[in-house]
Structures are given as C-alpha cells and as structure tokens.
Design brief:
The chain is mostly beta strands. It is built from 5 helices and 48 strands. The strands form 9 sheets. It has an 18-stranded antiparallel beta sheet that branches. Strands 27-26-30-33-38-39 form a 6-stranded mixed beta sheet. Strands 1, 2, 5, 8 and 9 form a 5-stranded mixed beta sheet that branches. Strand 35 and strand 36 form a beta hairpin. The longest helix has 17 residues. It is elongated and about 105 Å long.
Length: 781
C-alpha cells in the first residue's frame, strides 16, 4: 500500500500540472457568469469577488465569450464587482452555497451613461446545474422547529426519508448504509454499518448541502446520495456564541399501558460555545468550538421492570485555522474530537442488571488539511488529506469467568441476562478508521465560437480499516434457553434439553481489514450558448479489498459516466429543462459481506445440547427457584462432567461446530454494487426571489451481494472434522431486483423578510433485494 500511495501522490501532482480543477469534496462553492454590453459579450472585464468568508480577494478576467469562472471559493455572502476602462463599475451581492454553482451576470454601460451601481444578484443556484440539490444554512435551521443536527437537517430535503433499518436515513431509494456523508470534506461514515458519526458541534455548523440525484463525477462510493456539511471559519471580525440546552426525562410522559417506575427528575444540560476571529487580519484566521453534555436517561429491564440510568458524558472540541500563504495560495487545517464515556450501557433488551456494561469509552476524531492555490487566472489547484478514527474501548463484560461472564438469551422473551454482551477486556479495542487523499484541478476555457468549458480533473485515494476481534462474551460462552420465570423483579432461567450451550473462541486475532478505493474523475461543464449547456463527466473507481485473514474480496474496476443536458428555451436563465444519465459505483461493504470469509477476528462456534438435570422447570414453586448464577454453575458442572469443551461426542450432546473462515469463500473477486440513474427535471424562477424545481428520478441497481449455496458448491470439512455446506459470496443480478422511481419537488420564495420553502416527494421502491439487516450494513440475499 505504501508504493500505491506514493504513486497516487505523484499522479496527483502530474494531473495538477497538466489538467487543473477545483477541489471540492463538498467544502467549496463556484461563482460563474457572463458580462455583456448592448446585447454582445464583453471580454477583458476585471471581475473581483470579496467576502467576509474569503481572505483577500479573488479576481478573474472575462474571456472571448465574456464569461468568467471562480471555483474553490468558501461559501458565504459575496460582493462581485465588474470593471472595464470606459465602462461604469457594477457591483452585485450574492450568496454562494456549499457544493453549488452560483451565476452572477452583468450588463455594463458606458461610463458617460451611468455611474457605478450596486444591486443584489438573484439567479437561483439550484437552476445552474443538473444536480438535484438542497442547501440549508445554519441561519435557516436555527429558525425551524427541528433539531440542529445534520440528520434532522438532511431530513428536510426532498428525496430523503428515515425509512431505513432502525429509522436510518435513505436517499433516493438506496440502502441507508450507502450514502456518502462528509464533514469538512472528511468521510464520517463508520465502516461496519455505514452510518455517519456525530462529528460536529451544532453551533459550529455553517451549512449543509444534500445531493439526491444527478450527482457530479467528483463524488463516488455511494448509490444513494451525498451529504456535505461545512463548519464555520474565523474572519476579520471577532464573533462567538454561547448556548445552554436543557432536557429532563421527567418531562416525558409515562407509557400508559404498562407499569413504569418514575423517571429520573434531573435536568441535563448541553453547553455549546464558539469563538472566531483573526490572529493576523486577512492572513490567519481561527475558529474554536466546544460542546459539553452530561445526560441521564431512565431505562428499564424487560418484564422485570428494573430501573437503571444510562449516562453519557460527552465532550466535543473543534479547532480550525485558515491561512493565506500568499495572495494566491491558502490552507485550512481543521480538527474535531469527541470524547464520550457511557455508563450502564446495555445491548438490546435485558432482563436483569447484571447484563449492564458499567462503562465504555467511544473516542472519535476528524482531521483535515486543505490547500487552495490559484496558479493562473484560469487554473485552480486544490488538495486535501483527511483521516477519521473511531474506537470502542472497554465495551462489554469484564468478568472472564464462565459463571460471571456468560450471557443467556431467553428466546421466548427476546432478551439477555446474567452478563454484558461482548468483552471489554479481551485483547485490543475495536477500531473503525479511514483516511483519504484528494487532489483536483479546474481549468476554464472561454471561446467565442464554442462557448465555455469548465474542465475538472482529479484523483482520490480512499482507504478504510477495521480492527475487530469479535468476542461475543467475556467468558467466550453463551447460552440460548427456551424461557424462564419472573417472580416480582427477579428473573430465574430454565435449563433443560431445549438449552444450547455455545463456546465461541477466536483462534486467529485480527490484524485489521484493508479496503481501498482509488479513483480518478474528469468533468466538463460546457456552456455552448445561452440555450444549451452540457455536463460530460466520467469517474473511474478501482476497489481493492482484503479481509483480516488476507483473503482477496474484491479487485474490481468500473467506469461511471455522468452525462447531462440543460436547455434554456428563452436564453435568460429563468427556465431550465434538465436531462441526466449517470452511474454510481459504491465501495465494497465491510462487515458481514467483506468479512464473511475471514477467520481472523471472528469467533468459531461449538455447540452442546444441555442434557443434565432440569433446572427451574415449569411448575417449580417460587420459593424453590434457583438463582441465575447458581443455576449456571450447575450447567457448567455438567459440561465439566462430560469432559468440558474438549468433548466432541454426539452421544454426550455435542451438536457440531462452525469454524470461522470455513463456511464462506469468495470464489472470484466480487464486483462493486452500482446503480444507473436517469433524471428529467424542470426548474423555473418565479419573480425576483422565487424558484421551483421538479425532478423525476429513475434508478435501477445491479451487482447485488448474494450467498450461493447448492450441490455445485459442495461441502467442506473444518479442522474439527465437522463437514458442512460451503457457501460462495458472489454477485447476482438474474433474480434480484431493486428499482426506485420518484418525483422530488422543491420551491422557495423570499418576500421581504420572510423565507418560505417546502418540498414534496412521491416515490416507489420495488424489488426483492433485502438490502440491509438491523445488525449489519448489508445482507446477502
């Protein structure tokens, strides 16, 4: 991988020298436009953009067709000035939105005709590109009756719903694990289930953009949508905020149909603070933010109704430096850390308090270093290195004895008892990390005959690793039982021939998985004239995945076209018809797909049927019931009496084994799941401040994950001599379908001080693809 990384960095430098592009990954915005005079285009005009969000000023000169382009600008409110000798100066104000293109045109008059004027530009950004996008600033979100989190902000966008497993977010019909979520350009999805981590401080969020269709070739590794959030930066003025949010579990009503203990009457406070300013005016800005939270959440055991308090002590800290190296080169360094300690955590439903995990830590960090350089008037180069780290520390039980560290699962009640699930003291802590390097350059070509070309080219090297030794319990034993007795608030398990006793050792510790995607992309946004513009983009993704045992999972390469047409029937920018075809290729999912054939880090399984004397059988008087741990000691005494875990005799109740890494194989490299999309849309500007856009999106997925098992796959004998059916993990498209059809409508209107907006989605998702399970990122059909 070191050789690959060095070659990637070298290639990025060559691309920057040869091509050019604006970096992005959702951290910047683009300003573009055309300057005219008496109906004709006007070359040679000096265009200057200034903003409180920008250090210094950015300039451009209009080309042969009177057009200019400024990519890689920080989002914010801008003043755009147009100057040419002999012409009056025109200045327009506008707002540049994150990951959006904003158009500001100007029509200059002779200096003798008029003095300099300043007006407000009103061209809506959502009509400028094929992308189906929605932008939410912190000012808008603060005024709405929603939580200020990224999740609740994203749910405001058409095409987004919380219909995924465990109420997770889905975008345009894709599984919830298959969205790309960025904070300051850093991927914040966790490796196993693909869900975003809360790497943000609410008061530090500047804005969020949601892309639900017609997504640029700049973005990859998803089949759903892209969510990009950027945090605030410093400036030439000092500003800050302080907030205290209050919650209390006593303020929540009790469940009316069940006996419920009183809630904890305790006010939990979330403190947030931000401060931004400058160390050197126009040269070095700083921004800092902090968030402190201590919560107490009243919870109850299942049926026994024992109260316990789940507590969380979480500290979030963010720092950002924005520096101007020279007038044409800038750099941004951002870091965010979350230190979270949880007390009394429980895995799913529990029957007693012995199953509660006393304490676990969940540290989480984000680091990003960005560079932005204007090399010539038409060439911009940007690059970013980022990394995210997340760890489970001390998560699970601490008692490694068989009686104190083995959990029970009551099948009749769907709940655990006796000990916490997983192990908090077995070997290393679980890590889920990623890092990425992106380089992108943009070159702007402006010709009188062929219009303008905004050509972007770039590369990305993304890698993620998961170090996980999946000990299921601290003792490595677990028991599944048919039921038990509840007397008052105490639970007494029943052990009989319906009880299975399982031994789950890990024979090969995990060194970590190695999943990487190397990508290259090129995109030409071509404006032929005032009526027609085109988007011609292609993305190349090479997925290279090896599990923790070193087995090849995927060595797959794919090219994704991203092709769009925009038609303006009147040539004035007020009406746009869009047609788009694109393909999105995702990464190989870790977890139960990428790790399905590995031995390293996965527990094996040895199972016995309990054949000792029945313990706490049905009908046992309450005063004769044996407590859980005393009963468990009797079960393990029976196991020892037949020779312990070394006994492999069916005559003594041994049911068989499943050795990790011997039940599933990858006969061939699997291809990355992908989706094809066709989007047809229409947008119209209403008055000076209104806009409505409607998009019809059709998607069809392919390269599904599947587990193939039949007579041809045969059987395999594990080291214990147990023979079982062998399953192959493959791609399957002949019998698996997933199709999405949706209409997404969005409109906004700003009469005076009011800001009115709304969205509507009609969608239909059809097929037999199961997609994902509650406990994992994906499931194999």
């Amino acid at each position: 991988m070191a050789k690959i990384r060095r070659s990637t960095i070298l290639l990025s430098v060559l691309l920057a020298l040869v091509a050019g592009s604006a970096f992005g990954q959702g951290t910047t915005a683009t300003l573009t436009g055309t300057v005219t005079h008496d109906g004709g285009t006007l070359p040679g005009v000096l265009v200057t953009a200034t903003s409180p969000s920008l250090q210094g000023a950015r300039t451009a000169i209009t080309g042969e067709a009177g057009a200019y382009n400024m990519p890689g600008l920080p989002p914010g409110r801008y003043t755009v000035a147009f100057e040419l000798q002999g012409m009056q100066r025109v200045a327009k104000t506008t707002v540049l939105s994150l990951a959006q293109t904003t158009r500001v045109d100007a029509d200059l008059m002779m200096a003798a005709v008029a003095e300099a004027i300043t007006v407000t530009a009103t061209a809506p950004a959502i009509l400028e590109t094929n992308e189906v996008a929605r932008n939410f600033t912190s000012e808008i979100v603060d005024k709405l009756p929603v939580a200020r989190t990224v999740r609740d902000t994203v749910l405001l966008a058409p095409g987004v719903s919380s219909s995924g497993v465990n109420n997770q977010i889905t975008i345009s019909g894709a599984p919830s694990h298959d969205n790309l979520v960025l904070v300051n350009g850093v991927v914040v999805n966790e490796n196993l289930r693909g869900q975003p981590h809360n790497l943000f401080i609410e008061d530090a969020i500047q804005e969020t953009t949601v892309l639900t269709g017609a997504v640029s070739a700049e973005y990859g590794r998803f089949t759903g949508g892209v969510v990009s959030t950027i945090t605030k930066s410093g400036g030439n003025e000092f500003s800050g905020s302080l907030r205290d949010s209050l919650t209390n579990s006593e303020w929540r009503g009790k469940t009316p149909w069940a006996t419920e203990a009183d809630h904890v009457d305790k006010i939990d406070q979330t403190y947030e603070a931000t401060l931004g300013g400058y160390l050197l005016r126009d040269r070095l800005w700083f921004f800092a933010a902090g968030r402190a939270l201590e919560t107490s959440d009243q919870r109850f055991t299942r049926e026994t109704n024992l109260p316990y308090v789940f507590g969380a002590d979480e500290q979030r800290m963010e720092g950002k430096l924005t520096g101007q190296i020279t007038s044409r080169h800038n750099a941004v360094l951002s870091y965010l850390a979350v230190d979270r300690t949880e007390t009394n955590n429980a895995f799913l439903n529990i029957l007693d308090l012995d199953t509660v995990d006393d304490e676990r830590m969940l540290p989480n960090t984000l680091l990003a270093l960005q560079y932005n350089g204007v090399w010539t008037n038409n060439l911009l180069f940007e690059a970013q290195y980022s990394e995210k780290e997340f760890t489970f520390e001390s998560s699970g039980g601490n008692d490694t004895s068989r009686v104190g560290g083995s959990w029970l699962y009551d099948l009749s009640r769907g709940a655990f008892a006796n000990a916490p699930v997983f192990c908090g003291v077995c070997d290393n802590d679980e890590q889920r990390n990623n890092d990425s390097f992106v380089a992108k350059a943009t070159y702007f070509v402006n010709t009188a005959r062929m219009g303008t070309h905004n050509v972007s080219a770039g590369i990305e090297d993304y890698a993620e690793t998961r170090v996980s030794n999946n000990f299921q319990s601290a003792s490595q034993y677990e028991l599944f039982i048919g039921g038990g007795h509840i007397v008052g608030d105490r639970y007494f398990p029943r052990f009989d021939t319906g009880t299975s006793l399982r031994y789950r050792p890990i024979f090969d510790l995990s060194p970590g998985t190695d999943f990487a995607t190397q990508s290259a992309f090129i995109n030409d946004r071509w404006e032929l004239n005032s009526n027609f513009s085109f988007n011609i983009g292609f993305r190349y993704d090479a997925n290279d995945g090896r599990d923790a045992s070193g087995n090849l999972v995927s060595d797959d390469k794919a090219i994704s076209p991203r092709l769009g047409l925009m038609y303006d029937p009147f040539g004035n920018g007020r009406h746009r018809v869009n047609l788009y075809y694109g393909s999105y290729v995702t990464k190989i999912a870790d977890g139960n797909v990428g790790g399905s054939g590995q031995a390293a880090g996965n527990p094996s399984l040895f199972t016995w049927q309990y054949r000792g004397p029945a313990i706490n059988p049905s009908g046992t008087p309450a005063d004769q019931l044996i407590p859980t741990r005393e009963a468990l000691a009797m079960v393990f005494a029976w196991l020892d009496s037949i020779g312990g875990a070394a006994n492999r005799s069916a005559a003594d109740g041994y049911l068989g084994s499943s050795i990790a890494g011997f039940v599933t194989e990858f006969p061939n490299s699997i291809a990355s799941p992908a989706v094809d999309e066709i989007t047809l849309g229409y947008g119209v500007q209403v008055g000076r401040s209104g806009v409505v856009r409607i998009d019809a999106i059709s998607r069809e997925w392919n390269n599904f994950y599947a587990a193939h098992l039949d007579m041809s796959t045969g059987r395999k004998t594990d080291p214990e001599g147990f023979s079982g059916d062998l399953a192959y993990t493959i791609n399957e498209d002949s019998e698996t379908e997933r199709e999405y059809k949706g209409i997404q409508i969005y409109g906004t209107f700003r009469p005076g001080r009011w800001n009115l907006g709304g969205g509507y989605t009609w969608s239909e998702l059809k097929g037999n693809d199961l997609g994902e399970g509650a406990g994992t990122a994906t499931i194999r059909n």
